[in-house]
Design brief:
mainly alpha; 0% strand
């Protein structure tokens, strides 16, 4: 496994004996991981929810996960704004009104316990739970109606809290949210639009605890800005792909993406727990 480097180390690549002030990360390894991570985020914010889950784990190979998440957060906020505008007519206010209050609870809990909880354990829990849900769906045991059903409040608040918590701790907020919303069998564009609005709210709410935990830095924010043009282009590609993909195929792709990401979350978390034992 590659040695993890702190962002400050990555950003100081000046000549010998010089203490140059660099405002962006310059290490090539970082960008080898950051470029595909940002493209994945753009596709995810464009509507293929779940693809972006790989972004923070990729960057976590070279820096602490919370710092990686802090670099990605400004990029996600800009992509969220694009997505909310594009899907402004295609979202469920009821689902947003159920999920976001739960997410606020989860973000608050994550803020309190971030310094004490094992990120590996969170990854394993989310990964195993989501794998079970995807297997249940593919085997046909989850009987979903052809038409959208009314979202349950209690379940939505619980899944929203779990989504807010895991999104703050390890940027894995997608699977808990999807486990609730996919079971409602919403029309494709309603699902995509609702996802955009929910995570736009969640990401703005995460700014407060990230500031409080000292995760933002000049170098990190400068790096976010440098990656922004690529983020916007990949975002536009995601919008186009969602609109041309048939609904049945879209849901199958979403479930497959959830499965692959959850396997990786479980593998990564399990290895960290095993090494730490």
């Amino acid at each position: 496994m590659p040695r993890r480097l702190a962002p400050a180390t990555l950003s100081r690549r000046a000549g010998a004996g010089k203490e140059a002030r660099v405002t962006i990360i310059t290490n090539p390894l970082f960008y080898a991981l950051a470029i595909p991570a940002v493209i994945a985020l753009g596709l995810s914010k464009g509507g293929f929810a779940g693809v972006g889950q790989m972004a923070t784990p990729m960057l976590a190979l070279v820096m602490p996960p919370l710092e990686a998440a802090a670099i990605m957060l400004p990029i996600m906020i800009v992509q969220d704004a694009n997505a909310v505008w594009v899907y402004r007519k295609d979202w469920s206010g009821r689902i947003v009104g159920i999920i976001v209050p739960g997410a606020i609870i989860g973000i608050g809990i994550a803020w309190l316990v971030a310094a004490h909880i094992s990120e590996a354990a969170v990854r394993v829990f989310i990964g195993v739970t989501t794998i079970a849900f995807v297997a249940y769906s593919f085997l046909g045991m989850l009987k979903v109606p052809r038409e959208p059903k009314t979202p349950g409040v209690a379940a939505g608040v619980i899944w929203g809290a779990l989504s807010g918590f895991t999104s703050t701790i390890c940027q894995a907020g997608g699977p808990p949210y999807q486990m609730y919303v996919l079971s409602l069998r919403l029309p494709k564009m309603t699902f995509v639009g609702t996802t955009a609005v929910v995570f736009a709210a969640v990401n703005w709410l995460k700014v407060i605890p990230y500031f409080a935990l000292g995760q933002f830095s000049t170098t990190g924010l400068g790096t976010s800005l440098a990656l922004l043009p690529l983020a916007i282009v990949s975002n536009l590609l995601g919008f186009w792909l969602v609109r041309v993909t048939p609904q049945a195929l879209f849901y199958k792709i979403t479930l497959i993406i959830m499965l692959l990401i959850s396997i990786e979350l479980t593998r990564e978390g399990g290895l960290e727990l095993w090494r730490g034992s």
